[in-house]
Amino acid sequence: MEVTPESALLLTAPTQSFLCPLSANIYKIDFVAFKIRALEDDHESLLFEIRKAPGEDDMRVDEPDDSTRFIRYHFGPEILDFKTIGTSLEFTVGDLPVQNFRMIERHYFRGSLIKSFDFTLPFVLPNSTNTWEVIYAMPELSPELKQEIIASPWEMQSDSLYFVDGRLVMHNKAEYHYGV
After folding, report:
1. CA distances from residue 165 to 14, 76, 104, 136, 170 in whole angstroms, order as listed
2. In which band, very low, low, confident or very high, does the pLDDT at 158 lie, cut at 50, 70 and 90?
3. Which residue among 2, 4, 90, 98 is buried most deeply as judged by most CB within 10 Å?
4. How is the beta sheet containing 129-137 ordered, strand by strand?
5. What percent of the chain has pLDDT over 90?
6. What are the φ and ψ backbone dihedral angles of 81, each rounded to 5 degrees?
7. What is the pTM of this model?
């Protein structure tokens, strides 16, 4: 089954496996740094930051282990109260130009869709280093749902699907812990 942006937007629960092989990334898109921050009342607070060490290569397309495509985030409960989150993703691209680079991110709790985000970069130059800045308006969560999420480590999950001209080239998965 071919995964399209339209079918990705219909996902109602986390995928059981990765929807494309590592080799689908023919554009050699490589995420080298990622930052998450809360944007509230004209100031920002850093919540998470990671950067690859210089020279570290994550482009192992023949590796049978998918661990490079999975991450676990441990945030405190206060992140669930922020109304706006900003992310900054630094990435490099190989020799091919990237047209219509689209990220669809789906977040689920206990198998139900909680939030969905859809962003597109129209064009990325080949052999370039880029920063993709995204602002997320967070959904309103009831106090009861927040408490359930806090009390249920790793039951919040996400699928991040990356498309180039409508073709799935990358798929990453994450789990989240919002307890103290």
Report:
1. 23, 37, 13, 23, 13
2. very high
3. 98
4. 43-51, 30-40, 84-92, 129-137
5. 87
6. -95, -15
7. 0.92
In angstroms, the Cα distances linking 137 to 24, 70, 95 are: 31, 24, 34
DSSP the chain: ----HHHHTT--S--SS-SS-GGG-TT--EEEEEEEEEEETTEEEEEEEEEPPTT-----TT-S--GGGEEEEE--GGGGG-SEEEEEEEEE--SS-EEEEEEEEEEEETTEEEEEEEEEEEEE-TT-EEEEEEEEEPPP--HHHHHHHHTSTT-EEEEEEEEETTEEEEEEEEEEE---
The position carrying tokens 């480590």 is: 153
Supply the pLDDT for residue 13. 96
Structure tokens at 99: 């047209």
Rounded to whole angstroms, how far apart are CA atoms 97 and 8?
23
**Residue of 66, 111, 62, 71 lying closest to 89 (CA atoms):** 71
The answer on pLDDT for 59 being more than 70 is no
